[in-house]
Fold this protein.
Amino acid sequence: MPATDLPAAPAQPAKRGRPRSAEADEAILTAALTLVTEVGIGGLSMDDIASRAGVSKATIYRRWESKEALILDALNSGLGRYEPVDTGSVLGDLRTYIGTIAEKLRNGAKTRDLIPHLIAAATSNPALEPALDDYSRIRTQPLRELFERAVRRGELPADTDVTIAIEMFLGAMSHRRLFSDSVYDGADAERLVTYVLRALSAGE
C-alpha cells in the first residue's frame, strides 16, 4: 500500500495541565490568613497551610512561587478589591470609600494582625519588601484615583500633594484600626472626611 494510503494516526488530545480549582484557591488563602494571625509570618509554613487547607504542598506551589507571594494574595483577598466609585464630588467619594472599607473590616478582614507581622518581617527579610510595596500600591490606588479626580474637578487645589492626602486619610484609619481595633463609622467617619478636606483646602 502506498505510503499516502496509510491510515491516519488517531488524533492525540492536547495535553492540559490540571485546571485550577477556585475552591482550592479559597481554602489556601483562608488557611494562610488564619494561620498568619495565629503564628505570625515567621512561624508560617507551607506545610501548615497545606494541612489546614486540605491540599498538598505541591498544589500551593503550583499557584504561588513563594510564601511571600501567597501572603500578599491572602492580604488582598482578606479585604477584597475596592472599585472606585465616582459620586460626582470628592465629599461623596470619600464618604463612600470609608463606608465600604469600614464594612469590610467589620466583616472579618484580619489586616489588624497581618500588617504588623508584614512590617516586622520585612525589616529582616528583604524578599518580603516587594510584596509589602505591592500591597501598599494596590491599597492606595483607589484613593489616588479619587484625589486626582478631585484635583481635575477643581475641588482641591491644583498643587495638592496626593501622596500626602492619602497618608493623612489612611493614617487616621490605620491608627484607629491598629490601636483600638475599631473603624471610623457614622459621625466619626464624617468628621474625618471633613477635617481631611479642610486641611487639603487650607492653602487656597
About this structure: Residues 129-153 form the longest helix (25 residues).
